[in-house]
Amino acid sequence: MSNMQSEVKKLNKSFENENLYNDCPSWRLALFALNNTATNLYMWGMMYLANYATGIAGLMVTVVGFILTAMRIFDGITDPVVGFLIDKTDGKFGKFRPYMVIGNIILGIMTFVIYKTVHLVPENFRLIYFVLCYAVYIIGYTCQTACTKAGQACMTNNPAKRPKFGLFDAIYNAILFTGMQMYVASYLVPKHGGFGNISLYHELITLVIIGSAILTVLAVYGIWPKDRTEFFGLGNKSVEVKFRDYWPVLKGNRALQMLVVAACTDKIALSVAQNATVGIMFFGIVMGDYSLSGTIGMIVLIPNIIITMIGTKYAQKLGQKKALVVGTWVSMISYVVLVAVLVLGDPTQIRLNDMGLMTIVFLVVYIIAKGATGVSGAFVIPMISDCADYETYLSGRFVPGMMGTLFSFIDKLISSFATTIVAFSVAAIGFTDKMPDITDAYTPQLFWVTMFLFAGMPIIGWICSLIAMKFYPLDKEKMEEVQTHIQEIKNSEPELV
Questions:
Q1: DSSP letters of 63-97?
Q2: Taking Cα atoms as reference points, which of 142, 66, 50 lies closest to residue 104?
Q3: Could you tell me if 367 and 375 are in contact, meaning their C-beta atoms sit under 8 angstroms apart?
Q4: At 8, is the pLDDT very low, low, confident or very high (cuts 50, 70, 90)?
Q5: Chain segment 136-153, per-residue pLDDT in tens
Q6: DSSP symbols for 203-268
């Protein structure tokens, strides 16, 4: 009898979930997650913009640092405008697909223009030309990235499925960043003799433009059947959105506030740590072999994916908030250990062709550190959708575009200082005319600046995240309450106006 009751309960639960949740096949989530990979491919291409602007176009290091910071702030300012346009859009081609396609076209054109022409412009006009081109690039970047944060809200609200977006995204990013690092460090740099050769950048952007276009097409196909009115929050019963609603949303949504604090502090810290110049300093100068950045990345790739999969299972069972907190704790502890290994040991002994104790210890700690970092970052984007559903629960507004771009606005406003932090840090130890290159000599000052940028900044960011998560209200139980309330409103007769 107890077995029969258990089966009946499972069937009832399955029926409730079928009616409560907007579900979708996992393969469509996997395809839509490629939209973030498409824009991350451009982000990777632009990681070397400072090297191009200073080494090829002849602009000063500190000037470029200020420009990239100012443009990042401009990027944040465009976010609310694009988010509002997305929320107001609901036409023949849906809400998100037009912005994904238009954004990618702008990115391709402006990346080509920047890397192909800035160094050819007369010196008196070069700076303003660079700024204007980059500003147009940012508009395209905003259009497409806003859809990543907003579009997943209509894909599914199933707590067993939503964390899978983070899993797919984490896997893609691990493959992308590892593969691109290998491509640049082990292929482009040896082929072109370093970052002072214009042909390196031209070959790089060819791959970026073509690859991102293909990924965007796949992402558009993934979201296609879900990009319809009935999957937008309360459907036809959603409250009308006005631009003046931005402030009430930010003021009244505690979940969004705390997620912004947690994710933005992580973002500025990791943006510093993952800066191309920091990678050159860490692997190319401190370790003395820049090609290690690619090969070590390949070694840790599979373990990182496995760790992320474990974190996703944990999130599906206990909620995304708990998974993020656990991943953050492990990240912080492992990076402290990583610094201790590099300080107490000799980084130049880390060699894959002659693996000693130093290499083995470094690889073990590095695998754990990178894997945990992947887990702590994998659930930020899905949690934005949770915040969007929470806003629908609170006010009846379906504003995923506004939610995602409000998040991005503050995120970019804060993280915009990452490039400036790197630029002024290296300038403080003598690199005022150009960024550090693999040919530069090792010094104790360079080592400690590298440790601060590579590990110290992330540790500070994670401490801030843990504090913010103490006040984040959307645990697993609260999200079940949110989804039940939304479904009750959708099933009711009167329409909201």
A1: HHHHHHHHHHHHHHHHHHHHHHHHHH--BTTBSSH
A2: 142
A3: no
A4: very low
A5: 999 999 899 888 877 877
A6: HHHHHHHHHHHHHHHHHHHHHGGG-SGGGSTTGGGPBPP-GGGHHHHHHH-HHHHHHHHHHHHHHH
Whole-angstrom distance, CA of residue 25 vs CA of residue 29 = 7
Residue 235: which residues within 8 A CB-CB, separation 6 or more? 229, 490
CA distances from 484 to 17, 20, 365, 487 (A): 10, 6, 43, 5
Element containing residue 443 per DSSP (H, E): none
Q: List all residues 6 or more positions away from 380 whose beta carbon is below 8 Å from its beta carbon.
A: 166, 259, 262, 263, 266, 324
Of the chain, the percentage scoring pLDDT greater than 70 comes to 91
Does the pTM surpass 0.85? The reply is no
Q: Two tokens at 242?
A: 């006005």
358-to-303, 338, 365 alpha-carbon distances in Å: 19, 11, 11
d(CA 377, CA 462): 11
Q: How far apart are CA 425 and CA 153, in angstroms?
A: 39
Between CA 261 and CA 471 the distance in angstroms is 11
| Block residue for tokens 């990543």 | 148
Q: Is 349 exposed, middle or buried (0-12, 13-18, 19+ CB in 10 A)?
A: middle
Contact predicate 167/26, CB 8 Å: no
Residues 90 and 1: their CA atoms lie apart, in Å, by 51
Report in angstroms the alpha-carbon separations of 3 from 7, 10, 12, 40, 212.
6, 11, 14, 50, 52
Cα–Cα distances in angstroms (integers) from residue 406 to residues 34, 69, 259, 387, in the given order: 22, 19, 11, 11
CA 86, 91, 96, 99 torsion: positive or negative? negative
- The lowest-confidence range among 55-64, 193-202, 465-474 is 55-64
From residue 41, how far is each of 64, 184, 479, 485 by CA, in Å? 21, 13, 33, 39
Burial of 6 per CB tally in 10 Å (0-12, 13-18, 19+): exposed
Contacts of residue 365, defined as CB under 8 A and 6 or more positions apart, other chains included, come to 334, 337, 338, 341
Is the pLDDT at 456 greater than 80? The verdict is yes
Burial 154-188 (b: 16+ CB within 10 A, else e): bbbbbbebbbbbbbbbbbbbbebbbebbbbbbbeb
Angstrom distance (rounded) from CA 166 to CA 373: 13
